[in-house]
Structures are given as C-alpha cells and as structure tokens.
Amino acid sequence: MNAVRTLDTPDGSTRWSTTVGDVCDRFGGDVQTGPFGSQLHASDYADAGTPVVMPQDLYDGRIITDRIARVAERHVARLRQHQLKSGDIVYSRRGDVGRFAIVSDAESGWLCGTGCIRIRLNCSDLDIRYARRYLQQPKIEKWLLHHAKGVTMANLNTAIIRALPFVYPPFPEQRRIADILDKADALRAKRHAALAKLDELVQSIFLDMFGDPATNPKDWPMKAMGSLATKFSDGPFGSNLKSEHYTDSGVRVVRLQNIGVGEFIDDDAAYISGDHFAMLKKHECRPGDVLVGTLGDPNLRACIQPKWLTVALNKADCVQIRPDTHLANAAFICGLLNQPSTERMAQNLMLGQTRVRISMGRLRGLQVPVPPIKLQREFDARVAVVERLRAGQLSAQTHLAALFAALQHRAFAGELALT
User: Fold this and answer.
1) Whole-model pTM?
2) What class is the 5-168 domain?
3) 221-370 topology per CATH
C-alpha cells in the first residue's frame, strides 16, 4: 500500500497526495477491466436490453448515449462483475486513453464494456464532481499517455491506473473547488451553445432561401457539382505526400481534421517545406476555395479557406473546389455540402466498409440544384453577418478557455484563496 503524503498549499489547506490504487485499497474499492471478447460476443448485443459503455461513449467526464450498445437481459447475470455503480469512473483502455466518464445515478446498473477499465474508489469522503474535475486536467492525460504501453496504439492496464497520482483535500474544500470549476465551465458551455445556434442559423437561412436540396421545392435547375468549379482537385496520394514530409513550418497542409462543418479548424497544424510544395504546386489552395472532407464524421462536410491562410496544400480525401463565380459562390457551395440532405443524396456514391468515403470523381458528378447567382450573393451577404457574430463568440470562447485553464491550475495547486 502506498504511503499518503499531506501537502501544505498556498491557500493554507491540507490535501492528501496518494494514488488511485491506494484510495481503492483503503476504502474497499477496486480497478477492473471490462469483459474480453471471449466473454462478450457480437451475437450477445441486441436492440433492447442493458446498455454497455464503450470507449466511444466516454466524453469530457460524461457518458454519451447517442450510439450506446445493449446486451440482451439474459446475459446480464453472467456479466454482473462488470456492472457499474453511481460514482464509478470508466476509462478507455486503448487508443484515446484520456477519455473517461463518471457514472451517474441514471447509469447505475449498466455494464462496463470491452475496451474500458472501471475504477471504483468507494471513498465516502470524496465529492465525485471534484474527482471529475481533477481527472480532466491536461497533466493527467499526459501522465496516462506517458505510462501507457504499446508502440502503435496506447494501452492501459490495471497496474497503470492504480499508479495514477490522486490528490484530494478535505471534503468541504473538494466541494468548493468543484463549485467554482462547475460555474466556470457553465459559462464555456453557454458560449458553445451560442456558437451551435449560429451554425444552425446558417443552415436555416439556406433552407429558407433555396429549399431542401434533396426535394428541390423551388425547382432550380440541376447541375453536376463539377460544373460549378474552375478547379476541382483532390490532394496528392501515396508517396507524393507522407508523414515524413511534414516539417515544423512552411506551407500549411489541410487535413481532414481541419475541415469542420462550415468552419476551418485551426488545430493540429501540419506543414511541408517550400521546396516540396513546389513539386506539388498543382494542389495549391487559396483563400476562398471550398475545402471538402469526404471521409470522417460527417462523411461530407465543407468549409471555406480563410483569408489569413494565404496558401495551402490539400491532403488526400480533402477535395478543393474553386467556384466558377459566374455560376456559384463559395458560401452557396459550402452551405449546400453541409446540408444533411445533401449527404443523404450522396449516400449511393459512397464506398467502403470500415471507412466509408465518397471519391472526388463521384462528388464531381453529384447532381445538385443551382439557384441564380444573384440569390447566392444575397445568401453570401447574410452569412457574412452571421460570421461576424461568430467571430465575436469565438474570441470570447477562447478567452474563457484560457481563464478556465488558469483557474483549473490554481484550484489543484491550492492557490484559490478562501472567500
């Protein structure tokens, strides 16, 4: 059993420094992996029954039930050791090992699924909201990644989870920290919700002006997507662009993770050298080009290359569309491709079993309704107003995220003065 250290902190409070395993041992909890494949077969799953929590259901400390799997009730008794209780912590055991969730009262009795590890601290002197906020710290995810096993994919086991550092103060201080961080997080959630509403507004404006692309109620002429562009190009394949070609700076490479629904996601930046770009010049992307993701979630999504990104290169499965401005503009093409009904229209053109995608050639031939360019320009003007509002919300969201990170650091360093 690990020794428990007490820490004196700047705010004058005392907190205990220990490990997850030690807390379990002292309070009668445990750490246990979910059932292996031999215990839970594909044939055991059913449309109705007891939910099974899988790694994909874990998000930001909560269980997401959109795609929850279930097993028939006749299998629950033999899987009873994997049943979850309120307050349990479930971690992804492989891949994205930072994914975790706290089991709520509503989820008590569900099953821990294959690919997960269940932690039962069983500590009555622990506010589970505090535990959630503690485990959300970036340094906790970094610790797990550093200690995970595996070369191609990170893997956790019970020994690693048991060794995970855990620091907690007396219960009243836990509750105070949880209250402060919950309130700060609620402000972030409101900003996020406001941004989601603005995204919905763009889609609503599109439907109001042009109608549903699948039914074409305004009887616009139908044309192939490729006919609306002066350039319709996929990124370089194979040996022309590999991960070893990436550099710390140079010409930006647009990848699938950078293409959101109506949003260029400026994360996880990759670059290639100017010399290498010169050999791939035909794939050059410019501000105002429509960038289309043809793989991922959703399978069809688009954004417009921002003005600040003066030159870029699109990767394979990231189609570049440069509008023929006599027939279409970027705002219309982007709005069209982001309509859920357009993706449904393209379903028959998508291929693949494990990784479904639509090829550039098939997307080029997709027949879509095309309204007059004058009406498209009016749509562009309306979208521009929404985008200005969105820019303000994004700036505020970024500011709130920085404040939350600073507050989180101070809370777990014992630097939040009592009020």
Assistant:
1) 0.64
2) alpha beta
3) Adenine-n6-DNA-methyltransferase TaqI; Chain A, domain 2 (3.90.220)
